[in-house]
Every structure is written in structure tokens, then in C-alpha cells.
Amino acid sequence: HPALERHDFSAILETINREVRERFGEGEVADYIPKLASVPIDRFGMALVTLDGQVHCAGDAREPFSIQSIAKVHGLTLALDVAGAELFDRVGREPSGVSYNSLVQLEFEQGIPRNPMINAGALVVADIILSHYERPREVLLEFMRARSGNPGVGFDPEVFASEKETGFRNAALANFLRSFGNIHNDIEAVLDFYYSQCSLRMDCVDLARSMLYLADGGFCPVSDTQVTRADRAKRINAVMLTCGTYDAAGDFAFHVGLPAKSGVGGGIVAVVPKVMSLCVWSPGLDTRGNSLLGGHALHRFTEITGLSVF
Ligand code: GLN
Q: What is the tally of structural domains in the chain?
């Protein structure tokens, strides 16, 4: 790709890192569980991994954090592989326009969540995974380790325990979905898998690598395997672009113009098809639950490089 020769990515990331650090303090760190509330707001990391093997980092790119909803993408990949297109009979693919943990649309839409990137949709995806895999937690962990090339990736037991203890809204969503017949497994098991997925701890480099398969038609260069079919990789990217940052997806498409997925831990992963994947992390969130400085950094990155799907 010509962009790979044209740009000095290390210098670009360093420029963004410098700019962003002057704005430390903006946004609010997620406070629904103590382990997230105690993360210092003055952190920023950015990593970029290209399909031809370059790795560029800036700031706190090697500091692990709670990946939270970013794992909804990996979960969707695992579920699509076993359920195929029928997955979309149980979960939609339209942006929700409401907050990621909202219950209201389910009432009007007969228990079919708008998309797999919001909590309701991810719970149905978790249910599908539970129906098809015997050891789902191990399968997910293995998937993350193989995609990132880091055998040290693991769950954070403290985050898992607090998610479970305070997850009344997710429990409500799961029960509500069940009332429409859209959860088939034991509710507790579905929630446990969902919380496990949220509690994965990774750093920017691992996370950027973990989504490289979405930049290359489902082929993961880290593990040298076809992870998912090209048509499925295309669909996952489409869902990320339209729904990956919840009710700010329009704003992200407008300012950044890349398929991206955020989490309330402050991470955002974005894909530049055929070129690279990148990850930013800064714990201060905007009102929609997306990293405020992370969003700014991605905006600046596409502005400087012109790398966007548009
Ligand atoms: N653990 C969070 C929840 O389920 C994840 C949400 C997120 O990252 N947006 O509410």
C-alpha cells in the first residue's frame, strides 16, 4: 500500500501523543466498578500494526487495561463462524441510536437487539457461543492469545467479580431477552461468559494485533491462519462502522471514517482495510461511553494520513 511508504508512522503517533497529553483530564473515567474507577485519567497509549509487519507505538501503548466491549467483536467472530447468517435472525444490524445498555428498543422490537455491538446484542451472541462451544471461556481466551500472539493474555478476576456483582442491568437485559425466547441457555451462564469477555486485560499492541484479521479478509497474519471467511470479515467491519461506537457511530464515521469498536475501559480499536489495525487507549470517557481523547487521536490520525475508508 502506498501509504506505508509515504508516512513516518512513529513520528505521527508521537505528534498525536504530545497533542493529546495537553488535554489530560477531559472526560470521566468509568465508575460503575471500583477497578475501573481507580484507573488514572492521565494515560494515553496508541499502537499501530500493519499487515506487512510494522509495529509503531506511542505513550502507554504497553500498559494493559480492561478491554470491555471491544471483545464484542471477537465474540461476534466466534458466533458467526458457528451460526452463519442465521445469527442475524436473532440480532439485527442497524445502529441503535441509544446508549449501549438500553432496554427500551427490545420492548418494541420483540426481543431482537438492534445490533451485536450493544449489550443486548452481545448477550444473544454469548448465548449462541454457549450453544455451540463446549468450553466457551477457554475458546475465547485461546482466540485472543492466538490473534494477539501473546500467550500471557488473561481475564482480570477482580473486574469479572465486580461486573457480576453490579450487573443488574445486564441481568435485566438477559432476562428480558429470555422472555422473548431469544436466550436459550441458562441466564447465569450467559452472563458469566459475557462478563468474562468484558474482563479481558490487554494492551494497545495486543489489541491492535488481535484485529488484524479484519484488515485482511479474515486472514490473521499473527497466527498465519484464516480466522473467518472473507464475507464474514466484511460484515463484521460493516457492523463496527455503523454500530461499534454506539450512539456516536455517526459521529465516528464523520470524524474518523474507519470501522472501530470502543469499550468503557477507554480503549478503541480501528481497522484500515488492507493496511493496518490500530488501538488507542485513554480512560476518560465522553457522555456516550467512548474514550474522549482516544476518539480525538483517531480523528487526528485519519486527518494527518488520509487513511480512511472514505
Ligand atoms: N461491562 C460493561 C457493561 O456490560 C461493558 C460496556 C462497554 O464497554 N460499553 O456494561
A: 1
